[in-house]
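Lab meeting minutes (informal)
Scribe: AK
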Amino acid sequence: MLVSINTAVFSNEVHSGSSQFSCLKELVNKPIDNIEVRGEFFDDKTKDDELNKIDELCQQNNWKFFYSIPEELFQTNVINNNLIEYLKMADKHNIDHLKISMGDSSNITQNQLNDLTKLLKQFKTNVTIENQPNDNGTIENFTEQLSKLKEAKVPLGYTFDSGNWYWIYECPSNAFSVFNNDITVFHLKDIKDKETVMLDTGATDWKNMLLKLSDEIPVFLEYEISPKHLDEQIQQVNEILSNRVKS
């Protein structure tokens, strides 16, 4: 498996006016497996057309299509009502995976989880929840919420964000040791003094984490990278991924 790219890599270009589609075209012929777009990077007026173009680009390059939802799934005692619209969007545009932040499921009932399970099973798209850099994302709280979902057999995967732990004063390596067996997608970034930096210049023991990760789990670069550094960052990760133990 090769590294994958989240369009956070192109943050500077997007904020300067480029579309995610135009940025993703820069990845053609690079050694990557999948791409992930960010919902907050779309212009609502052109989003549908751009998703069509990205879908076509993914099919042309044999990339799987991931989409990051800039919302929370659980909002204390309710489940995000927008989820069904995102699932329909994914169905329309052949999006393989949707990612959404966990949120707070503390007052979500078993009946609500049963309804969520029924909804998710109506669509072919895989949905993952992600740990957040807030109180809901501490190791203790996330463990409790993840256990609740597993006990209810809700068909959700888990996107492990290796950087978010720093903002809540948790150690990514400790979190990885706790959640390794639950991870279905890995978001990679290196952090130094709460700033995202290029790999091997921060505090994250990312190589050891990737080497312990199942070789079936996609690893996304999810931080801004200048064009002159992109190939080198891709190569660094691919070298480690090539040494992962086969499942």
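Next up, CB showed the second protein from the same session:
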Amino acid sequence: MKAIILAAGKGERLKPITETRPKPLIPILCKPLLAWQLDWLGGLGDLIDEIVVVVGEMKDKVVEFLSKTNAMRRVRVREQKEQLGTADAVLKAVEGFDENEDVVILYGDVYLDSPEVLYRVADSRENTILGVEVDDPSQYGVLLARGDELIKIVEKPGERYSNIVNAGIYKMRVGDILANKDISLSPRGELEFTDIVNKIAEKTSVKVVRAMKGGWIDLGLPWHVIEANKMALSKLRGQVVKGSIEQPVYISGDVYIGEESYVKAFTYIEGPVYIGRGVKIGPTARLRPYTVVCEGSVIGFSVEIKESVIFENVHANHLSYIGDSIVCEGVNLGAGTITANLRFDEKSVKMRIKGKVVDSRRRKLGSVIGAWVKTGVNVSIMPGIKIGSYSWIYPGAVVKSDVPPKTILKTETKTTLDVMKIEDEHRRIQEEVSSSSP
């Protein structure tokens, strides 16, 4: 049996995270989501003899990652050059497969609390779909089922039919996929694999296997990255220290400190916390529960972090607060940078996604700071704000609305923000240098 991972999507709703990395390489405990999925499939042993990864957006980064993994000997890459939908991706993946063969299919944005449920899908004797119970099914494809048999997948229904939604994991016979491949474009202009599944369900049995509630998440929106890492952190057990600690340091709860990391004196670490390789913490830093800090980052003097995901090579050297936020790779936070995470009225925080305001249903949510952003001293970022990659936020700015990528945000007064493109600022600086040259 073969497995397919659909890793070609653009991840538009995850920007600015996906401005510089494809969705499958988003870190969960500092390990790319794709690496987790490959490990799950590897755990199926002899059930899986080959894995096909369908790539598209930023394919070079995915291929580079795959080339460095032990799984590469069983992995074959196929490219989806045009983003025509999940059905098109699956059909490209199964080209040349035996029609009598079964395939396990995983969407590339799915994270599981326990891979055991994947075995139940793969070991099924019939076409199978994984369902999971959620509190709000309105943003998912809902499974209409009679007992354990699928009737139909209804995408984002206006009324509540069921709380069981499509988890994006299937086992299907190749011949059934090919026999039902003639489908129409969906309202969003794509060929949806769920439409193929619905056609199969009209003609033959499709079994529904159910995952435990709370044991699944798909990384569709920025705060889902925080929640997926929180889910993974809940599995930490004990205190594992592979780096060095300068006493006195207070550590409580479940904590992992990676190799070559160094924790300086008077730091508080309140687990669950995961610290990757080569990280420097402190002195007098505070890492509160559900914090992840990835390789090469520096969390310096009197910096406090709570329920946040810090990507690789981030520098927060002094006197900053990062709460319920995502800070992407290479960011440099100036002294006194604050990510506010709670509205004055204590209502749930909203975030603008692809031009629409979306309720996160989180009482506390900070900001999403894209890769290689720089902030000056005493910058304050309001709840639910996104800052695009490569942007500069000048000292003293109060960021109240999203900042596009490659933008300079200056504050001339306490209330006025002047936004210009970084390219314009670079041009101005070059002109000044040229005019002052002898």
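CB comment: The mean pLDDT is 92.
No objections, moving on.
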